[in-house]
Amino acid sequence: MNAVVLEKVVKRYGSHLALNELSLTIPKGSICALIGPNGCGKTTTMGVIAGLLRIERGSVDILGRGPFDAGTHAGRVSLMPQDAVPSTHVSIGDSLRYYARLQGLDPASAKRETDVALEKVQLHDRSRSRFGQLSHGMRRRFSIAQALLGKPELVLLDEPTSGLDPELVVQIRELIMQQRREATMLISSHILSELETMCDHAIFVERGKVVRQGSMAELTSTNTLVRYTLRSAPDLGALELVLQGCTLEWREPTLSVRAPQSQPVEKTNALCLRALLDQDIGILEVDAGHSLEAAYMELKRGQ
Amino acid sequence: MLDPKKLQIVARFELLEALRSRLFIIVLSMYGAGAAISSYVFVRIVAASEVMVRQQLAAQLKIDEALIPANLVREKLLPGGLSYLDPALKEALLSMPLLSIWYGLVSLSFVALLVLVVSTGTMAADLSTGAARYALFRCDRLTWALGKLAGQELLLGVGLLIGALTAGLVGLAVDDAFEQKTWLWLLVASGRAWLYGSAYLGLFCGISLISRSPLVARALALFAWIGIGILHTLVTSETVNAKVPLKALGYAFPAAHKESLWSLEWGTALPAAAALLAFGAVCFAAGHAVFKRRDA
Prior knowledge:
The structure holds 2 protein chains of 2 kinds.
Chain A: E1 2-13, E2 16-27, E3 31-35, H1 42-49, E4 57-62, H2 70-73, E5 77-80, H3 92-102, H4 107-120, H5 136-147, E6 154-158, H6 166-178, E7 184-188, H7 192-198, E8 201-206, E9 209-215, H8 216-219, E10 223-230, H9 236-242, E11 247-251, E12 254-260, H10 265-278, E13 283-288, H11 291-302
Parallel strand pairs in A: 3-7, 3-8, 5-6, 6-7
Antiparallel strand pairs in A: 1-2, 1-4, 8-9, 10-12, 10-13, 11-12
Helix pairs in contact in A: 3-4
Chain B: H1 4-19, H2 22-61, H3 70-77, H4 87-95, H5 98-118, H6 121-129, H7 131-136, H8 141-174, H9 181-209, H10 214-236, H11 244-249, H12 266-291
């Protein structure tokens, strides 16, 4: 069962083709990453799913009930828009209660859900503040809170952690992981390592088209990326001899080693570390296992 | 599909939001102050003029000032004795307290401007800032748009009632001849202005729905307001002498029904009220027809 099915969706902004026969499926219950460069159509895809944007051609099916229709999907689908500003005249608590009521909750449930959502994003002490009085990070958290109101079956999060400090990123990531059992999620972000830890599915979008999609296991089965931050440049020739089948790239101060999936990351790491120590190179940091990033870069290279 | 319950939720939030906005507070204060000052000046002028007219009539008729009927004094006081008006309408006006006529004239003259400044930008602002996006995946577009319109209708009512209250309080404080029935007539005057303002509210909110910024919405609304004013004058003017079908078009415009609103006969006032509401509804529906096909 799929939560979202888009088939050959075409969306234009004037003469600009934003979605070019885009087709994708998001399995029900999955946390799916939507990956691609700026302007590739990620936000447009979310807008189409949430019924905010009108399409030119193609078919959309949300939760097995056809294209988005407020009568059918209100309360079941929620969206965290990227740069939307809610009412600036009322408190964020009032705004959340209003959204909860619009989702069909009665006044008591709306109040309770508002308190829960504010608690989840640690804004409960700011419920009387207006949106304009919040910092950038708090605004993102408010936006996440409104998306988590009630019990949505499909949550669309457009760059949920952009502009947040590292501690908050971790908190938001944990919050998303907690929702795993409750809703299908579609998350767009540029931080691939973050998506890799949170998501079990991924969709790569390029110029308004899906270029690859599947489970995280499938997508990351071809490559593993290990990064080493070094004090000085290594002898790449000597390393290539040791790390056969791997692709090496040196961009001071980072050495990137992309290894085939057939070779366990531990083995790649052990071989590379030994070779680097033999060359007497100072190793400042090892960052292993960026398979999604490797898969994405591989895809970019192939285009 | 229209959801009346959600419409009511949107309308209530719209009213709450508008009542807390700086723009509404500033405009309302200006409108209230305008109503108060003009009412004060009016009451003072009327009182002075009444004494003068009474003295003149007493001299003309060679009777005691106290014996001159109030209606006669009022008839002389009103511009041109209202001889240019329909006799029934003239009768109706003479039965109303002067302060309520004055507030009725002021509110009818300024209500379109009030709507233009306060309400025109609201939907366009929500669409340009993205606030609408938080609501439009929770309720359908028609419910949202009508809810916003209903909220603005309520807001207009609040504004006009506050204006009427201010005018009434001024009358009560400075007019020795202030009658309690004036309150009722001030309420009627507010209702009259609300109906007239609703026609413009429908037009301006329809424009707001298809505009991408509040500034553009206000500019377009201003052009539309001036445009329909000119058009109405042209098709109804005796000098232009427009053909009959074109003259009939004049009845579609709000200004054509302004005078009928004053009538105390249902047969005259109700069609005028219906025509004004229909004008607003048609304009709003046209705006929504465009909006529902567009991106939010």
